[in-house]
Amino acid sequence: MRMRPKLASAGGIALAGSALALAQMGPATAQTTPGRGVKGDFSLIMMVHTSASTPNFATPATRPWGGGGRQGVRFSYRSIPCTGAAPVNNISSDLPSYNSRVPGSRAPSSLRAHPFAFNVRRTSDGRRELQGRMTLTVCQLKPGPTADPDPVPDTQKSKIIVKFRARYTRRTAESLNWTGRFRLAGGTGRYKDLTGSGEIAGYFFCFDPRGCANTGRKYRDGQMVLHGSYADPTPQLSD
Fold first, then answer.
1. DSSP type of residue 25
2. Confidence at residue 14, expressed as pLDDT on a 0 to 100 scale
3. 1, 68, 150, 223: which is deepest, by most CB within 10 A?
4. What is the value of pTM for the model shown?
């Protein structure tokens, strides 16, 4: 994957207010060409955590990042399960429904990152960047958590694959922000032929009321936004 990050400020991504605002944004352009699939623009907002920050959920093991340039180490974060109450992820994006084209769907759809993982790599100009992959679990084609117990386990739900590169800056011991580019690299189910690209930006922090001071200087949580375009030459527009 060869992408040059387009640098921009990732500061000021509000935790709740901007989540709702982005989730309610309509697509800038969206069109269907008969016989040639669907394409359009989309936005997405997502929160990820580590096992230590969500002890009430039985999530697989994660590895929080401390902001250093430890090459060769894979860091990983996850969203909580689809059955969990996740205010941001429950109104995540208009991408899974292809801008509400799927009958019975409703934007924004509920999504989870299972997982969000990356390595820290040195670039040709001597800087370091995040190079990673996010697997989006499509909880359902409407807002909200799924039923508990859920008849379809998260591991069996449709997935969307996102690959990204981003450069980062540590602002304080409590926050590190990053910005770059992503591409959509297919998935499972209706998303197997999905492609697209755009900008990604986010930051790592600690939800703990005490901040990151008691976490071994590891960032246990993160939030990100994506905005870009998508195309699917073989859309499955039946629910």
1. P
2. 40
3. 223
4. 0.85
Query: Measuring CA to CA, how many Å separate 90 from each of 58, 87, 224?
Result: 19, 5, 14
Instruction: List C-alpha distances in Å: 62 to 54, 86, 116, 119, 177.
Output: 11, 18, 10, 13, 20
* Dist. CA 132–CA 171, nearest whole Å: 21
DSSP letters spanning 113-182: EEEEEEEEEE-TTS-EEEEEEEEEEEEESSSSPPPSS-SS-GGGS-EEEEEEEEEEEEEETTEEEEEEEE
Is residue 183 a contact partner of residue 211, using CB atoms and an 8 Å limit? no
Q: Is 218 exposed, middle or buried (0-12, 13-18, 19+ CB in 10 A)?
A: middle
* Euclidean distance between CA atoms 49 and 78, whole angstroms: 5
Sign of CA dihedral 100, 104, 108, 111: negative
Q: Cα–Cα distances in Å, from 236 out to 38, 58, 96, 192, 239?
A: 10, 33, 11, 10, 8
Element (H, E) at 20: helix 17-24
Instruction: Give the tens place of pLDDT for each residue, 175-221.
Output: 999 999 999 999 999 999 999 999 999 999 998 888 888 787 899 99
Residue 83 per-residue DSSP state: T
User: What stretch of H or E contains 222?
Assistant: strand 221-232
